[in-house]
Amino acid sequence: MNYLNRHTYIVIFFFLIIQQSAFAQNKMVESLKSELKTAKHDTVRCDVLDQLIEVAPEGEWQAYNGQLSQLAVKNLALKPNGRLFTLYSKYYAIALHNQGIIFSEQSNDEKAVEYFNKSIEISKLSGNKNEFAISLQAIAQIDIRKGNNTKALNQLYECLKIFEEVNDDIGIADVHLSIGNISYLQRDYRKALEHHIKSHDLYLKNKYEVALSTINFKIGVDYNALKDYTKALQYLQKSIDLIENSDYEPNSVAYLNIAQIFIYQNKYDKALDYAYKGLKVAESMQNKVEINHSHIVLSKIFRLQKKYNLSLSHADTALLIGQKIEHPAEINMAAKQLYEIYTETKQTEKDNKYNQLYIETKSILDNQESKNALLEQKLKYEYEKKELLTKAENEKKLMELTSVNERNILRKNIWLIVFGSVLILLTVSAFFLYKNFKQKSIITNQKNNLLKQKLLVSQMNPHFIFNSLNAIQNYIFKQDSLKAGNYLTQFSELIRMILDYSRKDYISVESEVKLLNTYLELQKLRFENKFDFEIKVDNTIDRESIHIPPMLAQPFIENAIEHGLFYKKDKGRVDVKLFFENNYLIYEIEDDGVGIEEAMKLKNKLKSSYESLATIITKERMNTLSEQAKSDIEIIDKKTISINHSGVKVRFVVPYKEI
Hints:
Blueprint: H1 3-10, H2 22-38, H3 42-55, H4 61-76, H5 82-105, H6 109-126, H7 129-145, H8 149-165, H9 169-185, H10 189-205, H11 209-225, H12 229-244, H13 252-264, H14 268-285, H15 288-304, H16 308-325, H17 328-344, H18 348-410, H19 412-459, H20 462-477, H21 481-501, E1 507-508, H22 509-526, E2 531-537, E3 546-548, H23 554-565, E4 572-581, E5 584-591, H24 595-602, H25 606-625, E6 633-637, E7 648-654, E8 657-658
Parallel strand pairs: 2-4
Antiparallel strand pairs: 1-3, 3-8, 4-5, 5-7, 6-7
Helix pairs in contact: 1-11, 2-3, 3-4, 3-5, 4-5, 5-6, 5-7, 6-7, 7-8, 7-9, 8-9, 8-18, 9-10, 10-11, 11-12, 13-14, 13-15, 14-15, 15-16, 15-17, 16-17, 17-18, 19-25, 20-21, 21-22, 23-25
């Protein structure tokens, strides 16, 4: 087996990593950096960081990955539910996977596998099958590189099932590429070609240009092993053309692939040029595996040119690296180079030494390959059995369909009569259903419009407007223009928001908080700081994406101020809370006023106000907006709970949507 073939298929963990031109890339990076600075929510920041990791240059994307990991961990510590948990788990799994890639490129396989496994665990918890398969495939790549092909095959077939389930064509293509590589190592060249062609077709179908040069290279080497030299040269040349005619910059693996093609064509000067380019890129990335491969390619070129001193130097370096990273495949290739150098220079003692090392490492690989051959036969059987079952099922369905068609022909006239009758019946039914639906729709719309009018009236009752204007007038008479201006500004802003939001069924939590804050500030000015207030929104609530019906809490806040705090001698307080409880969104309005019982004594109409203004309208609105929502409103006189407390607590469930 010539070195071109052997080297190509021991290098498993490679896909062409491309970058756009420096100008376009820098422009995209700067745009994303700007977006990161202005992002208001951590979900947006995580998304931007994920994009930055893809396009940022070497040495910079690693820092963004660290930020992504920290941000995801911070939010997961808050124990979010639903969509937020899934989202932050996804980003944390991505960050862990990327850290595994960093260690893998440094040939720290133990650490790389540790982080890939961490990513898999997080993906399992969040149900992210695709990310699970991607990390599992990365572990399989490391196992292939270390010669653990049996284990790798198990992992790859598991990945294949997941990628097929989620319809990820690129993932499926990647798996076939790796299985083809293992098949080549087992010297089953036809099976290798079969998998590589499947991979090629999927890459081509999805226009995945980054991998086209690689897969053409591999198919060319498959044909070379099968002694179809015409097709081999055709695909190898296509691999070179795809790289050289591309606007993208190839990585070390791409350069080494081209170098090996030129070796095959006996164009050693061109081969040297590309091999040195590959070495330079590999050294800049500190990728020990690719540095090892670069030295082996250089050693082979110099040996073919009879420059044995240079060939020996590179082979020795490759052997040291292979032994350091403990990869039997890399040691095997370096030992073979040294054996061939010493054989050609007739140094018998040394060539025996390295021939022995070559045989020992080859024995390790061959033993593993024997196990893989048995496993692949089993996998092949299961796969073909699945195809046979599918074929049998399809034939059964075809027979049933044929039988149905024959019966339909015999009963054609009967079916025509039945069909005509059913059609007439359906037409009549559809007409009446349409009329009924239209009437219900009109009634529902009228009911919604009536509720909106009631809501608008309840927020803009004449008493409140009169008192507000009277307060503004009073400040003007006192020549306190600053307070009059502030009051008038807040009053006009409140009226604008009420008019705007009364037309909408749902508004964001952020808009609701702004409305309530403006209303309470205005009331606080009106009552000359007779009370303090606080609006608390749970940290797990995304204020922008969670939407609720507008102004559900306002009638209860008004009751708290007008009937609770108004009659209190000392300074009072209103607390408004919005939080999740048992997957329900809860509103809670609490004051420390005189309470219901005392307020009824001071103003006999308080109970009527609670029921008609707040309870009835709010119940009707919630029932209309969400038939499944709980519309019970709990009103508690705090004095009934503890004699030392006064005031009222109102609590109810809020319908909400995630947008």
